[in-house]
Amino acid sequence: MRYNYLIIGGGIAGVTAAETIRAKDREGTIGILSLEPHLLYSRVLLPLFLKGRIKREQLFLRTVDDFEKNGIDLFLEKEVMSLDPGRREVRMKSGEPYSFDKLLISSGGVPRPLGILGEAKRGIFRLQSIDDADAIAEYIPSVKKAVVVGGGFISLEFLEILSVYNIPATLVCRSERFFGNALDEAGGELMAKNFERRGIDLIFKDEVEAFGGKDRVSAFRTKLGSVFDVDFVGVGIGLKLNDDFLLGTGVSVSPGRGARTNEFLETQVPGIFAAGDIAEYFDVTSGEHHTHGNWTNAFLQGKVAGENMVGRERVPFKSVPSYSLTNLGFHITFLGEVNGEAGTATVSRVDLFKNKYERFFMKEGRLVGAVLINMFQDKPVLTELIERKVPIGDAPDKFSDMAFDMKSLT
Length: 410
Prior knowledge:
By secondary structure, this protein is of the alpha/beta class. It folds into three domains: 2-110 and 240-310, 3-Layer(bba) Sandwich (FAD/NAD(P)-binding domain); 113-235, FAD/NAD(P)-binding domain, CATH 3.50.50; 322-409, FAD/NAD-linked reductase, C-terminal dimerisation domain (Enolase-like, domain 1, 2-Layer Sandwich). The protein is 20% helix and 29% strand. The chain contains eight helices and 25 strands. Strands 1, 2, 3, 4, 5, 6 and 18 form a seven-stranded mixed beta sheet that branches. Strands 8-15-9-10-11 form a five-stranded parallel beta sheet, covered by helices on one side. A hairpin with a 4-residue loop joins strand 19 and strand 20. Helix 1 (12-24) runs parallel beside helix 7. The termini are far apart.
């Protein structure tokens, strides 16, 4: 079967791209190959479903009729095993080929294995898919004590879900503080105190070595020798990209790095694009290649990729990456580049009494990223500073003062 536009991935990036293409090209044939058995649903709403704030049916964002009305062929449970750029063809695990004129790779990723003894036992969960959420919803009413592994946003979601059910929880992070390099000591202390107020036990600079129990998890042991009884484990340690089929195609830089693109989200193979978690795109703001795995980024990239696949006008992808979450009483935002890579200077300011904190990341005399805790009002001005590459001069000397108004820099 041949399509003018073929899309690998039925998530928000792929579906947005397909709908954008259809709005600009009413005649071209469009096909989507989705690994999942479900129609498009919101991954970001999965925690709300588990907290009982929305119903399961509210997770779904499209119906079969939506695809039919747009003339988009959706194929579920299709796993791509190979890509042949020369023949303009992808081949499924089941053997059948699909040919294309233009291709979008938006295949996302799957939870990365822990690689430790006992991780296949019942009661050890990820929170990536609706199937994960369904399994947790069925299992969690019987849970007495839990552990959450990892120091990122998914771990926060697990901790709040457990708190809704009044289940005692222990947090295990191998870094010295939550959010690793994104927070300094003051930010880590602010997060730790909030966890403690919520009755969460904390274990830093250690990691789970093995899970105990027969079929169902009943305990875990850390590398430093601590042993705890638990009957629920929430794991939030990131994704393994679905990029095995890209090896040797010229689309991927190296295993696990996804598909590298230019600013138009096109790979070095003409006519093959990438969007979402899988895309290592050229960021016109920073002048570097990045990947950003969040829902908003995937949606925006899907739209830009769809526009560029039609090809009437080339539109560069330009967006300051951001992710926000309200969790355990804190509103947390990551903005821009906050990984603290070499060559980046940082300044932070904190008010421990009001639970407010910001950390600013600077490179070559300009702001490139920020972490905000209960300071969401600063997001618009910080986004503008990053996007416009505003020189900040000697302003960082004032950044540690909570009274300093960032708007004075615009």
